[in-house]
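Need tokens for this chain, all 152 residues.
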Amino acid sequence: MNAETAALVREFVQRLSATRRGARLARYLAVHQLDAWGIPYGSDLSDSVATVVGELAANAVTHGRVPGRDFELRIALGAQAIRIEVSDTRTESRPPAPGHATPPPADAEAGRGLLLVQALSLAWGVEQRQVGKTVWAAVPHTTTLPKPLLEG
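Here are the structure tokens for all 152 residues:
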């Protein structure tokens, strides 16, 4: 990464309880941080990021939860994409590989989260960690970054 690209990146990191409340808070904090970076609440980009964060956080607390351990939300604003990472501490439970998520039956009440992530992202994937895994997604944007972000 060159110095100009590095100056364009902003990062937000927060650990949250691996509960439904923690997942809702992740979504709220994400749109709040985007607004602070100059991406307004209710914009298409804010809504897309909120959806991706919501789905990844919900999966972390539903499928990746280990009692007594938090999950981590990381959002990085780059020049062309917003990278969202949600890390949990469960190693044995992994989502299907990108492109292999299958639609649930039409009457199912769940199972569409990764399909939404795939539709809203340039790419997404799973990375192993020393303890657990990180599920990430890159949401594209063409937003002109506010001047304070450009100054580093």
